[in-house]
Amino acid sequence: MRIRCPYCGERDNGEFSYLGDAAPTRPDGMGAEAAAMHDYVYLRENRAGAHRELWYHGSGCRAWLVVTRDTRTHAIDDVSPARDVARTRRTGEAA
């Protein structure tokens, strides 16, 4: 599988580390309920099809990326810097 880094270009996935699902939003700090933190840490969906994932380009530019990938075929539809995705999430714009 090849991932197109927005900074370094197309690279082999061996240069990247997979973190997991990019969808969960961390509950608000110390005021969060224990059940909300449990759900955030341990519960993940295992869907077939298009899925947004966090990847870290450790052997390249060291950027965090949000990769939209089909889990059935491994076809990558989009790669965006995680900071841009987080910024649009905060401002309420479509990512």
Automatic annotation (TrEMBL):
Molecular function as annotated in GO: sarcosine oxidase activity
GO biological process, one term: tetrahydrofolate metabolic process
Any Pfam family hit: SoxD
Protein known as: Sarcosine oxidase subunit delta
Organism: Methylobacterium soli
